[in-house]
Amino acid sequence: MESAEISRRFLRFFEERGHTVVPSASLIAEDPTLLLVNAGMVPFKPYFLGQRRPPYPRAASVQKCMRTLDIDEVGRTTRHASFFQMLGNFSFGDYFKADAIPFAWELLTKPESEGGFGFAEDRMWVTVYLDDDEAADIWHRVVGIPVERIQRRGMADNFWSMEVPGPCGPCTEIYYDRGPDYGREGGPIADENRYLEVWNNVFMQFERGAGGTKSDFPILGELPAKSVDTGMGLERMAAILQGVDNIYEIDTTYRILDRAADLTSSKYGRDHRTDVSLRVVADHLRAGVMLVSDGVAPSNEGRGYVLRRMLRRAIRNLRLLGAGDDRYMHALTDTTIKALGEQYPELGTDAARIHTVIDAEEEAFLSTLRTGTAIFDAAVEETKRAGRTSLAGAQAFQLHDTYGFPIDLTLEMASEAGLAVDEEGFRGLMAEQRARARADALAKKTGNADISVFGQLLELAGRIEFLGYDESDSDSEVVGLIVDGASVLAAGEGTAVEVVLNRTPFYAEGGGQLADRGSIRTSDGAEVEIADVQSPLAGLIVHRGVVRTGEVRVGADAQAHIDVERRRAISRSHSATHLVHAGLRRALGESAAQAGSENSPGRFRFDFTAGGAVPVNVLRDIEDEVNEVLVNDHEVHAFHTSMKEARQMGALAMFGEKYGDQVRVVEIGDYSRELCGGTHVARSGQLGLVKLLGESSIGTGVRRVEALVGIDAFRFLARESVLVAQLSEQLKTPREELPERIDGIVTRLKATERDLDRLRAAQVLAIAPELVKGAEDVNGVAVVIHRAPDGTNADDLRKLAVDVRSRFTGDHAVVVVLAGVPADRPVVVAAVNEAGRRRSLKAGEFVGVAARALGGGGGGKDDLAQGGGTRPEAIKDALDAVDKAIRLRIG
Ligand code: SER
Question: Is 518 strand, coil or helix?
């Protein structure tokens, strides 16, 4: 029975019994105690706890779930999957044990022809919680299970909780006896491999507190109502109903596994290592595709890290299977989308975005791997040479810091190479780096000043009044001066100084808006030119500059004056940023959340989260819409309100930003509404023109738009126009025909390059007959060892090796080893035919021998292998070494 049919039957059964069928919630848990949904009941938690009124008394669902604790176990055992689906029926204060148990029994044992799952009654066993006589009684008296097949178990097995605070209660589990081939007699307490758990029925009755262990945790009290939460793993069910041995072999998963085997020319079921890799690939692709579909983007923390780890482990395992640098994630993502598409049609509609995210991660990781693996190999060699058994913390740190190797990848690769890693040393260095980064950030924003100086000033002067929303000049008083990090009473001409005024029109850099510039003049004739303004502590504004004339003194009356042109240009950029933010949200939806911005005079950049590139036509539409808002000249309006109200109004806020109780909201007509402390124009028409320059990636899942505003935007367009005129002139083509013309040129160029490639390859292959003729016979084996001319690329070397090999008749053993230097690094390729392999000749082994001599690594399969190194001067030695190795084998 197909997975999709199992789901359908389950839901239909419970729908017919008064349950509302609820679609799966997103894997991204709303529950703050959980990273990802890990059980079918998670979306219903508030109903069990009585925090929210359930809209229906009974429900049934197929919930997407992820468990990532035992990610390392995936594939090694056949019971662990990271992504899985839970079929469940739920009662919220409605029915209890007396109905739940017969429901489960009926569905499991009803013949398949009648809509059930057709389990043989005499193969079913159940467990109940120690003192749950009520459940045991129902099983025995109502259902008719003999007492010897009802076992009692303690807290660890038969009392279910989320392992975090939430609802909990005793449970009864239903097991299926797979038969004596799978293990010992004696029921689930004797052997959980032979007796497979298929369904767990939890009788939710209590609320669990924090802390404790799986078998001993605090119970806070009873729930408002007795409820039912059941969970049946779809994958496990499918394995039984499809008569396969494990969850990787069920319909939906095996398709992916099989495709991976096909792509990498490996075979499932032959050796454990290959099997583990294929299972990891299949499992992690399922998990990866489902996470991306739910809006998770690869990153270095939280859910993003879970996703990144999965995708990268899948890619690594593909390489272990022999994928080399070939990209298979696209094809496998495609298979995964198709395999799960019947149950999750949204995968099909969202396929383009899912591909973009996964392809980008593969690209990023492969390039990381390329550079990092060489460094890693060198570190392993050095460690082994020095007789150590553990990779130094500093080496792991360098791999992480410089080459982006996640620590768990280093751990995994080290363990494959038989080494441990000094994790403590690594963590120490990470901590040091973080401390350094913090110190740097502080130094950058606050000079070298001891932060306590600012604290004292703030205490002395109180909160500084910011006048700059309405004023560009102010009458103020100098309340503090800092020179070289120390508080002073006066500063003379030429001194770099930090000035604190009691009130100021100067905007301190913040919220993406750059600082104002300008000057401060005191009544006694001193002038300080201000180049930067920072707010090192909330409420304090510090002007940084140099005393140009006179001596500035604490207590002096002062006039502060900002550079109004610069401020206006910055304000224009800031208002434009809000408009583009609103436009992006409208076009891309909620997921386009602000991740940072910088508003400078005449231009701005805006960073936001997105799974993939924003298509050019979407950007063009946003630009168009924003410019329409300018033409319509909306009023810009700022006001203060409570955070709660701002939220209700739907004001956009930057994710993770901290705001006090009172917040400032800036509205531009009814197009944009955003929390913001920055300065803005009065009407949108003042922006003149906004030109988006384009969009790019600045890290996985984060995109950046850059744009020009006002006269800068106009000048840019004017320059572009001139450029097009020049091109049109040079190519003697009217403007509107330029794209076509350039297309033509590029196509012709590509065709010419292809022809060249073909000619070059033909030239390389032309020497095949000569190599065959020159083959040396060593004990009945034809041996061809040859150095190709420099510049021959690896592809051509491979083709030549295969060609030469094929020119010998089937029963004539042959080994071909070719070396060359395509660019600056040597490459070696070996090919052995079937008859050669029968005589124990292995291509991978000879490549290994040569590559070592070349100062590198490599290997591969017995029939064809490739490797390389860093020392082109050693090619002759390498080929000699191979020659010796071959003779040793057949001598
Ligand atoms: N919550 C229980 C489990 O996850 C039953 O759904 O096993």
Answer: strand
